[in-house]
Amino acid sequence: MREKARIMDATAMKRAVSRIAHEIIEKNKGTSNIVLIGIQRRGVPLAKMLAAHIGQVENVTVPTGTLDITFYRDDLSLLAAHPVINGTDIPFNITDRDIILVDDVLFTGRTIRAAMEAIMEVGRARTIQLAVLIDRGHRELPIRTDYVGKNVPTSRNELIAVHIAPFEAEDCVLVLDMTDGGKR
């Protein structure tokens, strides 16, 4: 795979997260009933970034949790014989709360379907909303985002790579070409 384009740098990512935070506050008429749940892996640091921005604006601490959807995936049998489990940690009651699910990239919608199924086993939320940094299209399920940092039309031969601490040294979003040698 080769880098085809750098579509966001660290500054653009921070700006997108800040905008999404303000949209969440506005849509929910404040923060009194919201909780943020990041989908493992890269949705977790994004949820923490959103919580920090919302906290600065509203002078509150927004409950934040993590969700591992591994066992809810519809392709679990296609994964490695021993898939990596990152763990779910939702240390608060979600019943009657407005949940903001946070992920890095929205693609087919299957990850979000699995996340909603996992959330419903934890409790009965009042609403489930979705915030993603990148929406790349190619939906296979009727899933849409409520908050998006950037819409990036892609081909199926491209991959969106979100680089974010603590997983990478530099925060950025790349489009990678997955075709043979990157040539077309």
Rg over CA atoms, rounded to whole Å, is 16 Å
Distance between the termini: 13 Å
In round numbers, the mean pLDDT is 92
Low-confidence stretches: none
Please indicate the percent range of residues in DSSP E strands (runs of 2 or more). 25-35%
**Helix share, percent:** 25-40%
Number of helices: 3
Q: Give the tally of structural domains.
A: 1
| CATH class category name | Alpha Beta
- For the record, the CATH architecture stands as 3-Layer(aba) Sandwich
Q: How is the main sheet built?
A: 5 strands, parallel
Q: Return the structural class.
A: alpha/beta
The CATH topology turns out to be: Rossmann fold
Strand order of the largest sheet: 3-2-4-5-6
- The ordered string of helix (H) and strand (E) elements is EHEHEEHEEEE
Itemize the secondary structure elements and their pairings.
Elements: E1 2-8, H1 10-27, E2 34-39, H2 43-58, E3 64-67, E4 98-106, H3 110-122, E5 127-135, E6 147-151, E7 158-163, E8 172-177
Parallel strand pairs: 2-3, 2-4, 4-5, 5-6
Antiparallel strand pairs: 1-8, 7-8
Helix pairs in contact: 1-2
Question: What labels would you give this structure?
Answer:
alpha/beta; Rossmann fold; 184 residues; 5-stranded parallel sheet
Report on the structure:
The protein contains 3 helices and 8 strands, in the order E-H-E-H-E-E-H-E-E-E-E. With 184 residues, the protein is an alpha/beta fold. The protein has a single domain, classed as Rossmann fold, CATH 3.40.50.2020. Strands 3-2-4-5-6 form a 5-stranded parallel sheet. A 3-stranded antiparallel sheet has the order 1-8-7. The longest helix is centred in the first third of the chain and has 18 residues, at 10-27. It starts with a strand and ends in a 7-residue tail after the last strand. The mean pLDDT is 92.
